[in-house]
Amino acid sequence: MLVSRRSFFNDIRALLKYFWFVTWQDLWNFILTDNVFNSTSNSS
Q: Which domain holds residue 27?
């Protein structure tokens, strides 16, 4: 379980390094919808 937890948080860290999300809900929506951007996400 530790390996999968570490992997999960490393993946979250990578997303947050390259993409900016207005809210945590935007981040979870991004993860759960096959990484499709919506108008509330901003990658700048």
A: 2-42
pTM of full prediction above 0.85: no
Taking the chain, what is the end-to-end CA distance rounded to the nearest angstrom?
34
- 35: tokens are 């990484």
Per-residue pLDDT of 10-39, as tens digits, reads 988 998 998 889 999 998 888 888 665 555
> What is the total count of domains within the chain?
1
| Cβ partners under 8 Å of residue 32, min gap 6 | none
Interaxial angle between packed helices 2-18 and 24-32, expressed in degrees from 0 to 180 and rounded to the nearest 10: 110
- H/E element, 20: strand 20-21
Residue length, the chain?
44
